Amino acid sequence: MSRRKYFIFSIISLFIGGMYYLIFKSNTILENIISRYFKIIPMKGNIPILSSTFFKCYFCDFLWAFSLQCGLCTIFLPDKKQHLHICYVVLIFGALWEILQFTSITNGTGDFVDLIIYFLGSSLTLLFKNKTKGDYV
Question: Which of 87, 97, 134, 135 is 20 to 30 Å from the Cα of 9, by its Cα?
Fold first, then answer.
């Protein structure tokens, strides 16, 4: 896949995750920063599918992992073996983040399922790479 495609996927997933946080979750760091400058009223579950447990707890984590993976691939444009190494890096970042949450150093709850979601988010780029046969630009 080309750098351009990795970059576009990274930005789109980051944007969707950010918008989900701003619109559907209240009292997040991102909402607190933005609400200082703009009046934002979170919907807090007005759309049932978007307020389901999967979306509330795991969808944004999936998007963050996918965005990080695509961002790192934009920078390094890896071959297949290096691509797996970047997946491991994303998983390590996710594990460190979950440890910080578990030990209450940062807000959130440490969750093993999040690690699986991080792995799935970063592994999704492997599917794209295999489908596009490495059309690097």
Answer: 97
For residue 67, the number of C-alpha atoms closer than 13 Å in the C-beta half-sphere is 15
* pLDDT reported for residue 47: 58
Mean pLDDT by 10 residues, the chain (137 residues): 88 88 68 68 55 73 91 85 84 88 80 85 78 50
Q: Tell me the two tokens of residue 21.
A: 């946080």
Structure tokens at 128: 């794209």
* Total residues belonging to the chain: 137
Q: What is the CA radius of gyration of the chain?
A: 16
Q: Which long-range contacts (CB under 8 A, 24 or more apart) does 49-55 make?
A: 50/20, 50/24, 51/24, 55/20, 55/24
Half-sphere exposure of 19 (CA within 13 A, CB side): 7
SS3 content of the chain, % helix, strand, coil (to 5): 75, 0, 25
